[in-house]
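Support request, please re-run this one:
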Amino acid sequence: MAPESALSAQPRSPLFGAAKGDIRDVYRKVAPATVLIRAGGGFGTGVVINAKGFILTNHHVVAHAETVDFKRRVTVERGRLGAAGVMELDPQPLTAWVLKSDPLIDLAVLKLDAPPKDLRAVKVSARDPVPGEPVSALGNGGIGLLWAIKDGEISSIGKLATHLAQLVAAQCDVAENPTAAEACKSANASAELQKALIERQVPGLVIQTSCTISPGDSGGPLVNRAGELVGLNAFLRADPRAPVTSNFHVHVSEVRKFLKDVPADAVTIVPDPHEVIRAGNWLDTNGDGRRDLYLAGPAGIADVMVEVQGLGGGLDPDLAVATISDRRLAWYDVDDDGRFDRVVIAGKDDAPGRAWLLEPGLKLGRFLGAAKLIDPSALAGGRRDALAALEPTLLSLIGVGDPPDPKAPPPARDLALSPPMLKDADGDGKVDLALVSTASGVRVLMDPAQRLLPDLKASEVSAQLQKGVLHTDVEFVSVRGRTWGLVGSADHRLALSSKAGEGIVEDAFFLAPEGRGAARAELVGAGLAQVVRMHFSGAERARLEAGYDVDGRAPGPKSGLYPDPVKDIGKDILAEESGVDGFKWAVVSIVGERGGGSSLVIELDAKALEGLSPEAREDVVRKGAAGTDFAWVGWGAWAWASYDLDADGAFDVVLISHDGKVEGRRVSKGGTVTVDSNLAGGALVRPSLFTDARRAALEKLAPVFFPPRDVERATP
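Re-run finished. Output below.
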């Protein structure tokens, strides 16, 4: 046996391979190959592994990258090592595309569009690292400077699910007594559950080091003393019970496996519709008792999944449609095997789309040519027929095709998106109102005679509405920025249209099964709810009034056909000094909160004003506008000028202004309103309508309180 001194003199293999140089040498070698990656508003780090432009990083760094035809594009910024050994940022950004990405191992490989000729690369180590080996991590941590190097050593190597100390320590084997055994069993079960979860989240081999990485360092290189890549910065784990953080890196063995098969071109992966379409409800679109449509989002911009066979489980959809990055996609399960195998990507502004086969993993396959987004012919047999029947509803829900006419009344057939809410508006124990959210909008069905709704269940309301056979005496529908009021039977309904939030009739006509009928021009400019109310009396009218505000969608005048300058506008009443002799306090202004309305009430009889103080004039108006000669009301885009021409205490002429057009109405003693074409056009404020001394008074007052465009020009 050789003496002990001879053994110690024998050459030994280096424990850590060709470890040479110090950390400064490592930095000069690796930093120029380390890059900054910007993707989807975030940033991280990458490392060049081939001078031809291949970059390695984490999947999570590029997961939210910009997509161009479902290819992911990122911005890469590199640096150069200055004379002082410090990295300097290159001002010229580069573009790279994701060639391959794996969310489980958390690796991605990129390829630069135009790799610079002087691009530096880091060699991937052929040898696995071992615990205790000195290593360095480089990256662009968000809490520090770019190209920062953190030195340390490998603390441990393994899989999180089997090596994580807090899970291993949680396991126990106690059998002294039943209570302890049961607690131990529960603890072990919890630990196994956490292990299974971690195994799904981080299944690969990882390295734990003492290199203090931080967010932003993700994707940066972990290198040995030879400057070779032995891992990739990945994530941190903190312990809430102690101020410590552990640093983890993807093991180089996982990197080598990942890089064995890298495609030459950027990978095109269509998103999984099950991940895109969330937070919705299954619906029964044809009333057969089986749910066939999953709707996510409000009608008109909805994402959907369709089970045309009506199984309702949602586990095997035949079609899915969603909007991603302003492009609409439709996925089809053509052969009904439970896997989407065809995708249609719509053109811009829903122009005709293009179809591709989908390979396993939702990779874009062979191009199939031009295709419609909703294409029943893509399916076969009964599935094709079922999708064809559902096609109009789908197009309406996702907002594809010709946009619906905003002035067209809501359809009789409609799809309830949730169970209707049945209400007893007047509290007499009988249902007289149904509130339904539908594919076309929100419907409030009112049954003031209680002849229909008390006998229907919510499901029956949905079914009848879907078949187009549900017609209550009154219906309010909010759809496409408008509110419609429908009054009467299915054969003869009065249709009233107003802008949402105004409650003023812009269009009025009779609606028959064959379509639009005779116009009711005299109702334009009147309050929508008031027009509906005048068709009823007694208990029926009381039920209507009780139900008007059920969904907060009943704006407009409450006191009469036209807004009352006092009752409908508000109570902030102030006498205005006019500066006109004899009519100092003739004008009282009223400002209210309802719709931003305001009004002016004007007394044109000088004798009626004699001796009145401002406060007294305000008190007179506060009791009501009746008995005054002229009133103006402004409400949103509308304005009304009311005249009491015969001085009987009631307004008998109303001029209505909307969108720059003025129309005239005559109001009879009994309240009947008729259109007077002779009053159409011209100014809203017309002193000439008065044939007595009041004309001269209004001619003096009008220019003080109204802009010139609203006042009739005085004639000599």
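The CA atoms of residues 86 and 282 lie 60 Å apart. The first strand starts at residue 34 and ends at 39.
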